[in-house]
Amino acid sequence: MPAEYWAQLLDTLHQRPRRRSLRGARAQGPARLLASVWPRQHLHRNERLSPLLQQALLRQSWQLRQANHHLVAAILAAQLTTDVVRKARDQMAYMLHHDPLTHLPNRILLMERLVQAIAMARRQNSCMAVLFIDLDRFKVINDSLGHGMGDLLLQAVAQRLQAQLRTSDTASRQGGDEFIILLSEISNERGVAELAEKLCHSIAQPYHLNGAIAHIGCTIGISLFPADGDDPELLIRNADVAMYHGKQRGRNRWYFYRTEMNLRAVERQRTEADLHRALRLGEFELYYQPRVDLASLRIAGAEALLRWHCPTRGMMAPERFIPVAEECGLIVPIGQWVLRQVCFQLARWQQEGLQLPTLSINISTLEFRTESFTPALRMALADSGVDAGRIELEITEGVLMNDARASGTLLNELKTIGVKIAIDDFGTGYSSLSYLHRFPIDVLKIDQSFIRDIDQASDSGAIVNAVIAMGHSLGQRVVAEGIEQPYQLAFLRQQQCHEGQGFLFSKPLNAIEFARYYRAEGQP
Ligand SMILES: Nc1nc2c(ncn2[C@@H]2O[C@H](COP(=O)(O)O[C@H]3[C@@H](O)[C@H](n4cnc5c(=O)[nH]c(N)nc54)O[C@@H]3COP(=O)(O)O)[C@@H](O)[C@H]2O)c(=O)[nH]1
């Protein structure tokens, strides 16, 4: 055994450092070395170790090896534990930074990368882009095919997005059907536009999901650094504003952010706040547009149309505020106000001897689907004492066909109340003819776009003819909207369209003007 071995062994046995005293002895061989540290009686005269000591040393040596093995095992165990901990830590970090469904980076990771990309773009005096992507009509897929299919679709969309990007770009999912892409190195707007176009095209290709085929589009809003913002939040917000703006224009397209869009968003918020006040302070008024029986040219009824006397912005047409009211849910209390107002106006006119046969009301999707709708209608009818048969509810095709089964149930309930049902803007939406036949519908109102282009030779003329013929055969009254010209009236009368409405007869009038107009026509 080398002297060093024995020296280490003795160090271990005595558990104290002996380096100083050993230094000199080491050079002289094991016996000298031991003699320097070990009591003299354990050495033979020829300076060999006594058997007793040899045994003790071997035993200690063996114990030391055992101790070493335990130490190695402990180190290995510690190493294993560290690996498990590291793995768990890595997994947690991954989960914290990624969307569990698509495995794309989530908002946290995107924000980190945005911060880095902005810093880099600043240093290099370069540009970058943020693309806010929202799927069009994803809810319809989710509702019709189920949430499982919806999840598969989102995963497929994530893959298609990633397939179009470079490794330096980041595609992230924000939740729901919203994705954000960070393009960290862009040369010009044109390149971004081309990529956005490719993304729209790719997303719009059919999806084969567990045997079903789904179609979906997307709307993309784009903001650029540094032109549209110099921090992550602002870039995302402006891309979102551009996307939101796009949703209202035309879907499956991309839109660069423009400052005016933000003004529009601010305007929308202001409208929402003002609508609350309008309801509270009674700033709404109903106007009435006569509906004329085209055979006799006598007034057969009227349509109630909402107007808002906004103290700061003047008279507001419904197109400026109904979409906002629908989005924020205020259309429900506004609609209930309209219902009561219409019923009480009819009752008032009746007391004044004005016998208007029918008064129609526009009903929005949200109102129609709200549970309080039929109770509110019943109450308005009961409180005003008006005959339900004189009230007509105008509902669009879209409202009816979006959950046709529930629509059928609700329409039947409305029929038991006794009100009439009209399909508004007929021809512009999607209707299944079999449902049209089964639903208890009294009136089809042909959309004014067809009347505008009416002409014996035009497609619109052919469509109008077909709707009139269908109405006749299904026993439904057909009303043409937007009659402005005598030739349109002549065409409709020739085709035996039942009723018409439009500026040719009268614009919408307030209640006093309407009563005057009605009496001037010589009607009771
Ligand atoms: N949920 C509710 N929606 C409502 C209510 N009141 C109105 N609306 C919705 O707003 C839409 C627009 O209404 P308005 O600006 O009043 O326009 C109506 C008419 O003024 C217009 N019209 C009528 N005749 C003509 C014409 O000859 N030419 C022409 N260019 N426009 C004309 O059409 C509108 C009526 O259309 P319709 O409802 O399809 O019969 C309105 O369409 C409602 O959707 C409300 O109380 N609640």
TrEMBL record:
Under the heading InterPro entries, the entry gives: Biofilm_reg_signaling (IPR052155), EAL_dom (IPR001633), EAL_sf (IPR035919), GGDEF_dom (IPR000160), Nucleotide_cyclase (IPR029787), Rev_trsase/Diguanyl_cyclase (IPR043128)
Q: Which domain of life is it from?
A: Bacteria
Q: Where is the EAL domain?
A: 268-522
Domain spans labelled GGDEF: 126-259
Q: Which PANTHER family match?
A: BIOFILM ARCHITECTURE MAINTENANCE PROTEIN MBAA (PTHR44757:SF2), DIGUANYLATE CYCLASE DGCP (PTHR44757)
Annotated protein name in UniProt = EAL domain-containing protein
Species in which this protein is naturally found: Duganella qianjiadongensis
